[in-house]
């Protein structure tokens, strides 16, 4: 087995004696896109910030490349860990080019090389070279976060941490930035730790997903494993945290209207699938999905108009 | 009015430039020092809320001390001149700069701070590359506020002999000359506006260029100050004078006489230096070496003598003796003229009624209408003494000193009080009535210096004693008239007098 890039060993973190993370154990493999998902207060951002030592664990060890983060000098640790923030937080007095070159300048990269680096990076995120001289407040939110990502990548870091980077953006910008992040990840093969509260985003981006609640990792696995074998506990936990308690008020027809019905053509084995009517509520669907992978939906003339599986329902729930 | 203003402006343009220079120099140092104190202090305390609150309190309290009181309080510690002026201005300017720097730095979006940390920036790098640039507009506006305040308050520096535009205002108040007050006030206001624009300009410039420009300014001002300081190290005689034309004429004569005696000696003049007590203190603390003082003033204000003899010679002797024993000072021999109170009437009026002495007024007291200054009416040795000693009585209106002359010129009154050397006496063709009963105390001018200085420079003593018993009241009136009304320079008037009286032809050995 390859050595993990990042490893949490019995990590505990408390603020003012109040525990936020209790006994966290996690290994993140080189080159993987790891998504930490959970509602606010679950401890996912705290976990992230312990990797680049913005926060120190109260107990236990955080290892990066097998070495305790405490044993690195701060610049050395942080220059190899890119960081993207939810608030974007570009340096407002610096131009786009200056923002991108913050880390390379500290690493004493020659000016000419920095110049070329900026040129290449801007091209990769689809921004014109004239953006170099713009100030952050002259850019849209989506453009700003593109630069935020470039700022994190400019030092060619092995690890990139992203703290809910797209949650403040509109759906359109979010979608295209998700594509961009996936593209850049394939291109650079760096290890990404991505924090989100959006299950849909987690399923779309992650190679592996870790579900956090109340400072504990409930489940770690690939999107497939998570969607197909969620513990009942997890489903109940994760969704009760959100405003999903009135699941019996949401009708199947509403889920169909939202576009989460899987058309019959995509499903190979349609026999022996339990089914619900369009007027049934979501609670009933979830109850059935807990024991089987697929639920059929029957139309007004008793024909099967489509199916739901765990993934489609979770995706729907994450949009509410 | 406007023509008069422009005339005054043109006539004084040299001294205005000098005052502007002094004003800028004081303001610049005060601003620079307060920035150098307040900005690092704010940077240091920004992480500690309680300490910051403490410093905000302190600087706030400092600012509530009235500036005049602060200047006065500083005199015992640092004397007079530019140093206490700069200290007082710094004390004033601290609050806005400190407060704005603190607010500017603490109000930075915490996520930007976090981004800087996460990029692995060192603390100094973060400060200079991220935090200070973000806080800069707020810091600059604090500096601007301080600077406008400094330039305004620096006008008070003239009170403690630091010069600057305030000397115009003080001189204007003293001579009741609105033009001078306006010149001082408008120049100070313009200076504030221009420097405010300059700060805006600097802010818009790229950081490097602004830094270069600022450094150039600092070197320029610093160099000038340094040059002054170095030249002052050489043995140099500093002669100062009180506010007004007359002292300025006298100190110009002093300089000329010293040059005749010893052409190599370097003499610096400090005209319009301040009021009596400032000059006296400056003399004590060796900031100046010589200034002309009146015999009557010595007894009344400086030595607080319990007795005042009536004979002028006895007054001088007593003043000289008291200064020597109490203050180790040497008081050289006085000039002839007596600058005291007088009673004046129009020359025509005097001729028509054959008026020569104050006593002559008695015969026409039914015809008299007097306009007099409030101080003269109030002083025990003023109007009250006149009425008692000369047995005269007439209706009196109290009015501002300058207004008296206009009132008598326009015939609204026909008797006024005056100083016996006022140039207006000549300007409005007035005659001073003889005080044959010697009601008014005697004020004769003579050079005052420390005894130690007099011993070191017998040549200077010798040169200045040549003025003893020279210059009559008529002559000094004439000279004041030429400076005040004809706008001749005090230096040329002084030179002309000495030349006419053959005092420039080398000292008799």
Task: Describe the SSE topology.
The complex is a heterodimer of chains A (320) and B (509).
Chain A: E1 6-15, E2 18-28, E3 33-37, H1 44-51, E4 59-64, E5 67-68, H2 74-79, E6 81-84, H3 96-100, H4 102-106, H5 111-124, H6 141-153, E7 159-163, H7 171-188, E8 191-196, H8 199-205, E9 208-213, E10 216-221, H9 223-228, H10 232-241, H11 252-257, E11 275-277, H12 282-289, E12 294-298, E13 304-309, H13 310-319
Chain B: H1 2-11, H2 13-45, H3 49-64, H4 67-78, H5 82-106, H6 110-118, H7 123-153, H8 166-175, H9 178-204, H10 207-233, E1 236-242, H11 245-261, E2 266-274, H12 276-284, E3 290-294, H13 295-302, H14 312-327, E4 329-331, E5 341-346, H15 347-353, E6 370-372, H16 374-378, H17 383-390, E7 396-398, H18 401-409, E8 415-419, H19 424-427, E9 430-433, E10 445-450, H20 451-456, H21 458-465, H22 473-484, H23 490-500
Parallel strand pairs in B: 1-2, 6-7, 6-8
Antiparallel strand pairs in B: 3-10, 4-10, 5-8, 5-9
Write a structural description:
Chain B: In the C-terminal section; belongs to the OsmX family. Belongs to the binding-protein-dependent transport system permease family. The complex is a heterodimer of chains A (320) and B (509). Chain A is 36% helix and 23% strand. With 320 residues, chain A is α/β, with parallel strands linked by helices. Chain A folds into two domains: 6-243, Rossmann fold; 247-317, CBS domain Like (Alpha-Beta Complex). In chain A, the strands form three sheets. Chain A has a six-stranded mixed β-sheet, sandwiched between helices. A four-stranded antiparallel β-sheet of chain A has the order 2-1-4-5, with helices on one face. The mean pLDDT of chain A is 87. With 509 residues, chain B is α/β, with parallel strands linked by helices. Chain B folds into three domains: 2-232, MetI-like fold (Orthogonal Bundle); 236-338 and 443-500, Periplasmic binding protein-like II (D-Maltodextrin-Binding Protein, domain 2), CATH 3.40.190; 341-433, Osmoprotection protein (prox), domain 2 (D-Maltodextrin-Binding Protein, domain 2). Chain B has helices spanning 2-11, 13-45, 49-64, 67-78, 82-106, 110-118, 123-153, 166-175, 178-204, 207-233, 245-261, 276-284, 295-302, 312-327, 347-353, 374-378, 383-390, 401-409, 424-427, 451-456, 458-465, 473-484, 490-500, and strands at residues 236-242, 266-274, 290-294, 329-331, 341-346, 370-372, 396-398, 415-419, 430-433, 445-450. In chain B, helix 11 (245-261) links the parallel strand 1 (236-242) and strand 2 (266-274). In chain B, helix 2 crosses helix 9, helix 3 (49-64) packs antiparallel against helix 5 and helix 13 (295-302) packs across helix 14 (312-327).
